[in-house]
Task: inverse folding
């Protein structure tokens, strides 16, 4: 039996780990899965509700590191995680995504000689000003098994000198969660609470520091959303960081009496129910680029680059940057075009990635 520590820290991790834990528990004769929650996301609205919605068992370990600078948070995670590894002596540690918890726990295991599997390996934005890009590069460099979501990720790893025998294309485990929970999300009443009809509204999320920590950039994005809001309601579940900056920058007046509706952050099922009925999604999130592609929903990514080019090449995603005029032009084009986009679901985004991940761990 293989003892596996599965690391979660921030919301995107939860959606990726949930199917893996479920599959490992189904194969109880092969796996002894344990969950380590670093506490990187410490707000209950941003963390605990996702455990309940996704059916993730209570963490075996909660490190409770909380918020801090990148250096301090990473150091705190490493200091709290090392005793867990020394005590539990796992066969594998599974890290997912690209947050500080990912690289911190991978570093601890690399130095203690514990094998590391990185789920969602090989994604590259080519932008090293993004903290996530640094986390991705370093985690891949020290991992023993690199589990990829798309064939372009394989190519990135091979180009960086990673041996082919360490790379396994397994598909997108985030999409496992989407397909598993889509029917379940229909029990949510969020659309009724907000008085929304399917395909009659847009959804937006903004949280990246490059978008929300600079007044001029955030103001431009809000202006673009207000313009879209003249065509249809724009529902905006606001990240706490983004809300603070809207208020501290004095930008709240820009969206008052507009079609942009600020609401509190939502749990996983409520948010899935919300965006799955949207006519258009505008976001700077990585995961939403994938989820909208899987469900065939037009998505505008409000960033200058993306580590998920497959969602543009095959899916419903468009990279439009942060220029308000470009955002408005792309949004209006989508809203005025009733014909379906010629989009496909990428290979192995079939809801069975967790099975292939477990197979790869056993085979390795």
Result:
């Amino acid at each position: 039996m293989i003892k596996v520590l599965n690391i979660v820290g921030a919301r995107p991790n939860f959606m990726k780990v949930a199917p893996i834990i479920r599959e490992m528990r189904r194969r109880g004769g092969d796996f002894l899965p344990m969950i380590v929650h670093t506490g990187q996301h410490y707000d209950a609205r941003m963390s605990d509700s996702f455990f309940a919605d996704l059916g993730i068992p209570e963490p075996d370990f909660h490190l409770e590191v909380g918020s801090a600078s990148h250096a301090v948070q990473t150091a705190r995670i490493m200091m709290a995680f090392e005793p867990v590894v020394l005590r539990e002596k796992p066969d594998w540690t599974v890290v997912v995504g690209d947050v500080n918890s990912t690289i911190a726990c991978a570093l601890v295991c690399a130095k203690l000689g514990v094998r590391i599997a990185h789920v969602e390996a090989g994604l590259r934005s080519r932008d090293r000003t993004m903290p996530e890009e640094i986390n991705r590069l370093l985690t891949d460099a020290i991992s023993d098994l690199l589990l990829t979501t798309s064939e372009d990720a394989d190519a990135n790893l091979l180009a960086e000198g990673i041996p082919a025998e360490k790379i396994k294309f397994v598909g997108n485990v985030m999409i496992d969660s989407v397909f598993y929970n889509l029917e379940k999300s229909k029990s949510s009443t969020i659309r009724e609470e907000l008085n929304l009809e399917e395909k009659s509204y847009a959804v937006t999320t903004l949280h990246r520091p490059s978008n929300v920590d600079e007044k001029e950039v955030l103001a431009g994005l809000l202006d673009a959303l207000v313009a879209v809001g003249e065509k249809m309601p724009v529902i905006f579940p606001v990240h706490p960081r983004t809300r603070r900056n809207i208020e501290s920058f004095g930008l709240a007046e820009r969206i008052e009496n507009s079609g942009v509706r600020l609401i509190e952050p939502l749990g996983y099922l409520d948010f899935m129910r919300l965006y799955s009925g949207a006519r258009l999604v505008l976001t700077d999130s990585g995961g939403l680029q994938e989820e909208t592609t899987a469900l065939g929903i037009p998505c505008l990514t409000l960033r200058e680059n993306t580590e998920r080019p497959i969602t543009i090449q095959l899916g419903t995603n468009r990279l439009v940057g942060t220029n308000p005029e470009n955002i408005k032009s792309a949004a209006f084009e989508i809203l005025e075009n009733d014909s379906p986009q010629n989009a496909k679901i990428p290979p192995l985004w079939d809801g069975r990635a967790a099975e292939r991940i477990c197979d790869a761990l056993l085979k390795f």
